[in-house]
Design a protein that fits this description.
With about 325 residues, the chain is α+β, with helices and mostly antiparallel strands. It is built from six helices and eight strands. Keywords: Membrane, Transmembrane, Transmembrane helix.
Length: about 325
Amino acid sequence: MNNPTNSPELAPVSLGEHCRQAREALGLSLDDVSEKINLRTTILQHIENDEFIHPAIPATFMRGYVRSYAKFLRLPEHLLNTVSYGEAEKNDLGKNTRAKKAVNNHSSHGRWVSYLTWLILLIVIGMTLLWWWQNHQKTTAERDNLVENYVATTNNASVTEQTENVLVKENHSTDEVVATDSTNTVAAPVDLQPITSVNTTESEVLEPTTSTEALQSEMNRIDNAEENSAQESSNTIAEDVAVLRIEITGTSCWISVRDGNRKVLAEKEYRQGEVLTFNEGENYSLIIGAPGNVKISYQGKDVPLKVDGRVARFKLPQQ
């Protein structure tokens, strides 16, 4: 009689082995079973080899395949409880948190890109404004140098020319005195003695005629002088009406005049004797190259200028 303690223990039969034995007992091949239960042969091989966990087959599907195969072979239900199909995928509660964090990271990245774009835009605007200011300063400096060079070249000759003007005025005054004396000399023969004798010679008749013609010409000259004086006075009255009046009394002067809207009204070199009048408003900006060569009146009042050899810059009305 055999001792049961010495008999070898029988290894338990797996579910896959039960399926294979049952299929062979029915005399069916894997292809036959595949046609009957509509499962692929590879899946049936995995089940018979106890390969219930496969990376390409989800655990839920594998459980359904095993249940269908076992039901076809009429295996007991308790054999299915011993099979492990791997852990089912659990609900990932942190998935939403991670997704939200990823969205926040993306939003933060977009915010930094927006900040960087605005920073670059501000830098470009600042560089543009700096470039414009440098060009403006350069243009102003070039204009100032032009005016100063012009003043430097004209100041040396201004004293000599002013002296010549004084001499010319003195000569003109002398000529006027001489002309006045000649006028008085010509006008003297008007006081003719009355003719006492009717029988006069031809020479005696011609002398009064010549004196009459001279008197007529002198009267015409006086009338013309009065007309010119009236015309000059009317021009003077018209100029006095102007808000701003600039008269060039020296040899020449470089003048720049702008109105309150920075519109250029005059900007060039003017010669002696020229008169500029402006009625463009009440606000003016002036640059005078040689202040000693001009006379300026604003609203009928003379504007004092500093004659120190430098360019005069000021606005009217003065603050």
